[in-house]
Description:
The chain is α+β, with helices and mostly antiparallel strands. The strands form 4 sheets. The protein has a 7-stranded antiparallel β-sheet. A 3-stranded antiparallel β-sheet has the order 1-9-8, with no helix packed on it. Strands 2-3-4 form a 3-stranded antiparallel β-sheet, with no helix packed on it. Helix 3 crosses helix 6. The chain has 6 helices and 16 strands. The protein is globular. It comes from Streptomyces rutgersensis. This is Rieske 2Fe-2S domain-containing protein. Pfam families: DUF5914, Rieske.
Amino acid sequence: MRPTWREARPRLIAAALARAQAAPSGNWYVIGASRALPEGGERPLGRTVAGTEVVAWRAADGTLVAGPGACPHLGAPLRESPVRCGTLICRWHGLPLDGAPSAGWRPYPAYDDGVLLWVRLDEAGGETPLERPVVPARPDPRTAVDAVYTAVGRCEPEDVVANRLDPWHGAWLHPYSFVDLRVLDAPDPSAEAPEDGFTVEVSFKVAGRAVVPVQAVFTAPEPRTVVMHITGGEGTGSVVETHATPLSPDPAGRPRTAVVEAVVAASDRPGFAAARLAAPLLRPLMRATAARLWRDDLAYAERRWALRATGRFPG
């Protein structure tokens, strides 16, 4: 393979990261996949986001509800409580919460975009709030197949974002998946617009020596999100979204970040309609592919954080 280290200039990657961090998020954080909370489900979803304990569930009408994860009565962990007909019932003393303010408990703004669940934490984010999260453009859900993979690493969100804004590492770190990777265009380090992205030409390995060439563009629409849009070749219009959500520190005080990656696949091939019918079988395969890639990419992000934390990061 051709070395790419001269092209992967630290200043260029750092400038792209700085532009992403300067973009507004409106204090919205991804907390999981929409399918993690099925309508009529009896278990809530619990997360500790940026040090804030959050619980989420579906109201009786299917609407997403989110709020503080500690019961206002005596602090019980609401993530362990059952949901009955859209009402979360504290398992310590039976306090019912239907999503409306009650007994000192107040909901957080929440949003379900059909693929991912979001919660707005104004105190943690500290930005000017936005009414809706910055959701990337996606294929029509009626003609697409989506899958969501989640992993957790000992790093900060910026380390995950920096990994995605370094497309040059792809063929070197993931030789089992990518070949012939070329970065055709990179944003000017002095550019201000966060939508200025990296245009990449790469071939995905399918099986044996079979590969599928595509062209993709990486952009960072907000501080904790990097999006890859397939703009040419097989699967044009498909999207891979990588969202980095800060969690609570580990017992040693090291930061932890959840990587929530949504793949929304589309194709104009006639056979893709049959693939959509097999979506329940395809999703585990899509998640397995993401898991293999993120084993390496999280090692990259964790190494970056370890070097930054000890003042040894050369970039």
